[in-house]
Task: inverse folding
């Protein structure tokens, strides 16, 4: 039988930096719900997460890893309740599909909507949920303080997701459960008045590992140099 160290080494895909950055997708339909995720892999990803830059070197991040089936099921129920609200919100993937300027863009947004719906319907089957958290209620802080705190946690969460991709794991950054954040706090024992949940990152092995760069809006439509209108 292979020991845990050998398994961990075998899981790595040995992607180049560019390959890693361009193929770390939001994985929903290709999550393998039936394959367990070794705790050692999650810890390896978290070791990479805490190497990310953090404002004033505060290192005040907290990560809550949820594997308990009952808690995952409770979070899934909260997520689905939030998903019903999200589906009718301005800026939802479905609305963006309706407002798309091209058939290609509309089709892409419809695929996103379909995969997001699939994840919502199967949320409790995701073997690992990782919730990055911050101290304090960020929604009550002035803009600079809130931006500084988010700037400390989001790079670490992205590092976690990149590390997961390298280890043949798929992730998806979600925030829909935050519509009912206080309910999620009660499920997880998080002191709501003292801690802000930032996201819920789903983690599972993937069905195949051949992810490719996504079709994106051309740079000349999203990049300006020296002046906003340039």
Result:
């Amino acid at each position: 039988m292979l020991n845990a160290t050998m398994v961990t080494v075998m899981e790595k895909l040995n992607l180049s930096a560019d390959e890693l950055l361009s193929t770390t997708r939001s994985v929903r339909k290709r999550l393998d719900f039936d394959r367990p995720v070794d705790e050692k892999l999650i810890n390896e990803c978290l070791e990479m997460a805490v190497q990310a830059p953090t404002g004033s070197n505060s290192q005040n991040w907290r990560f809550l890893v949820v594997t308990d089936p009952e808690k995952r099921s409770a979070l899934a129920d909260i997520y689905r309740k939030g998903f019903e609200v999200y589906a009718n919100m301005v800026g939802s993937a479905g609305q963006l599909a309706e407002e798309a300027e091209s058939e290609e863009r509309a089709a892409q947004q419809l695929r996103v909507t379909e995969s997001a719906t699939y994840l919502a319907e199967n949320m409790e089957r995701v073997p690992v949920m990782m919730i990055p958290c911050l101290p304090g209620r960020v929604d009550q802080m002035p803009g600079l303080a809130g931006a500084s705190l988010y700037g400390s946690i989001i790079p670490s969460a992205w590092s976690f997701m990149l590390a997961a991709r390298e280890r043949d794991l798929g992730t998806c950054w979600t925030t829909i459960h935050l519509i009912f954040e206080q309910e999620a706090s009660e499920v997880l024992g998080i002191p709501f008045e003292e801690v802000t949940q930032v996201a819920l990152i789903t983690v599972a092995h993937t069905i195949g590992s051949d992810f490719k760069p996504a079709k994106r809006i051309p740079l000349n439509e999203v990049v300006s140099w020296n002046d906003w209108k340039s």
